[in-house]
Structure formats: structure tokens, C-alpha cells
């Protein structure tokens, strides 16, 4: 199997950590973020897995795309993995809307996806909470377009922290990757994510697939109603785990605890 430490495949920036002979584990980030958000968890995961993180098209160090529809994003991810010689039984973990891409990957390329985990992935559009005021300022409509180019590093850090419940350390690489995403691209990604969720909820998609998943939710998530994680209970064989006192950014707020849950699921 061909693997890389840092490379670009089909315009997608990709990094890998851990033994190249270990089972593959793909981590997919959420909207507007990039693969760097996973870094606090990678050392623990890389003890058992060959960990792959990527920047989805339009995000971080990856190139832009003609469309950001979730199924199209999943197809691009599949093409990247195919180029790496990975076509079966890849463990896939998605954070937030990265869980939508992970789910679409299982829908469109079922043989590719092995075990599946969703972290802070809103199950249905009705579970969405009002955005924190600072996040709404930075990302919403015409005002967001004006503010976007004026964002300082400190303001970006505050925006991320507004979705967390615990104090978080936000690396310079995370901030730099946020800066690389344009406002137009960010809004297109957000609209595509909404379209995917409105069409059919994630639990219903998993039920239709006959696919179980580990679902991890912070019980203080300010982006999605925490109790909505129970919507995943309709999926046979699934498992829902709550992280006490954690908001939307589990990999930054509770990296060790989140990694332990993933390792338990993935064996």
C-alpha cells in the first residue's frame, strides 16, 4: 500500500501518521475547518492505526471545487483513497458536517467504509440550535462577507472557542487553515450540508444502509441540541456516548477521552 507523510492527491491535501502497516483510519473535519483540528488526538490514535487526515476541497490547503455537494465531496475522498491503494474496510470518523461526508462515503462506496464514527454530527435539521452571536457575526450573510476579510487571529480563536464548552488551545496551523477558506466557498459548503440534511436525516440514512455507527456528542454542545443524539437510537447496533461538559469541539476539548472512545469502538 502506498502512503505518504504529507502530499496532495487530486488537489486534496493529505497527511498521514502512524505505522504504514497498521489498519487505515480516515478523519474528516467539519465545515470551514481543516485536518489540523484533529492533531491533539492523533498521537493516541496513531499507536494503533495508520491515521489519514485531509483538507476537504475548498478548505485549508486543498484546492477549490466546482461543487461542494456532500455526495460529490464523498466521491472526491474515495478517489483520493483509491489513489493510495485503499478500497476496502477503512475506518472513517467524521466531525460535525464531516460526518455527512463520512455517511455519504458509506452510501456511495459501501465496500470502502469499515467501522464508522460520528462526532458532534447533527442528526437532523430540527436539532440545529441558533448560532452563537460571534459565529453568526463571522459567517452570516452580507455582514459576514464584510467581516470575513477583517478577521484577526484572535477573533478566529474566539469564534472557535464560542462553539466549545471547555477551554481550548487552538494552534497557529488551525487558524492559518481557516484563513485559507474564502467566504464564498464557506457559504457554498454550508448550503450543501444543509441540503444533504434536509433531504434525509443522518439516522435515517444509516438505517437505510443497515450501517451502525458510534456517535459521540458533547452534553453541552451549543450548535446542536445535545438530546438530539438520541435520534441515532433508531439505528440497530449503534452506540451513543456523551462527553460531560464538552461542547462542539471534542477533539480540542477532550482529545484523550474522545480518542479512548474511538479506540474502544475500532478495537
Provide a concise account of the structure shown.
With 267 residues, the chain is α/β, with parallel strands linked by helices.
What does this structure look like?
This protein has an eight-stranded mixed beta sheet with strand order 1-2-4-3-5-6-7-8, with helices on both faces. It has helices spanning 42-45, 70-83, 98-108, 133-139, 141-147, 153-161, 172-180, 183-199, 202-209, 250-253, 255-266, and strands spanning 6-9, 12-17, 24-28, 50-54, 90-95, 113-119, 214-218, 239-243. By secondary structure, the protein is of the alpha/beta class. The chain starts with 5 loop residues before the first strand and ends with a helix. It is built from eleven helices and eight strands. It has a single domain (6-266), classed as Rossmann fold (3-Layer(aba) Sandwich). The mean pLDDT is 94.
Topology, element by element:
Elements: E1 6-9, E2 12-17, E3 24-28, H1 42-45, E4 50-54, H2 70-83, E5 90-95, H3 98-108, E6 113-119, H4 133-139, H5 141-147, H6 153-161, H7 172-180, H8 183-199, H9 202-209, E7 214-218, E8 239-243, H10 250-253, H11 255-266
Parallel strand pairs: 3-4, 3-5, 5-6, 6-7, 7-8
Antiparallel strand pairs: 1-2, 2-4
Amino acid at each position: 500500500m502506498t502512503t505518504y507523510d504529507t502530499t496532495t492527491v487530486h488537489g486534496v491535501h493529505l497527511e498521514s501518521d502512524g505505522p504504514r502497516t497498521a489498519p487505515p483510519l480516515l478523519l474528516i473535519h467539519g465545515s470551514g475547518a481543516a485536518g489540523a483540528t484533529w492533531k491533539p488526538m492523533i498521537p493516541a490514535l496513531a499507536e494503533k492505526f495508520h491515521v489519514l487526515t485531509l483538507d476537504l476541497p475548498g478548505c485549508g490547503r486543498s484546492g477549490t471545487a466546482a461543487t461542494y455537494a456532500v455526495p460529490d465531496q464523498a466521491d472526491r475522498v474515495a478517489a483520493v483513497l483509491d489513489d493510495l491503494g485503499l478500497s476496502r474496510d477503512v475506518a472513517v470518523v467524521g466531525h460535525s458536517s464531516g460526518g455527512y461526508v463520512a455517511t455519504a462515503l458509506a452510501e456511495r462506496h459501501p465496500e470502502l467504509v469499515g467501522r464508522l464514527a460520528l462526532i458532534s454530527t447533527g442528526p437532523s435539521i430540527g436539532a440545529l440550535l441558533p448560532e452563537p452571536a460571534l459565529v453568526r457575526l463571522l459567517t452570516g450573510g452580507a455582514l459576514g462577507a464584510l467581516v470575513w476579510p477583517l478577521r484577526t487571529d484572535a477573533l478566529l480563536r474566539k469564534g472557535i472557542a464560542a462553539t466549545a464548552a471547555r477551554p481550548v488551545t487552538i494552534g497557529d496551523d488551525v487558524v492559518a487553515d481557516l484563513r485559507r477558506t474564502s467566504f464564498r466557498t464557506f457559504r457554498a459548503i454550508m448550503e450543501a450540508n444543509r441540503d444533504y440534511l434536509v433531504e434525509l436525516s443522518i439516522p435515517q440514512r444509516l438505517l437505510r444502509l443497515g450501517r451502525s455507527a458510534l456517535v459521540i456528542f458533547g452534553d453541552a454542545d451549543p450548535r446542536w441540541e445535545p438530546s438530539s443524539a438520541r435520534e441515532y437510537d433508531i439505528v440497530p447496533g449503534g452506540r451513543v456516548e456523551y462527553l460531560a461538559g464538552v461542547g462542539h469541539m471534542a477533539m480540542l476539548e477532550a482529545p484523550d477521552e474522545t480518542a479512548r472512545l474511538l479506540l474502544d469502538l475500532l478495537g
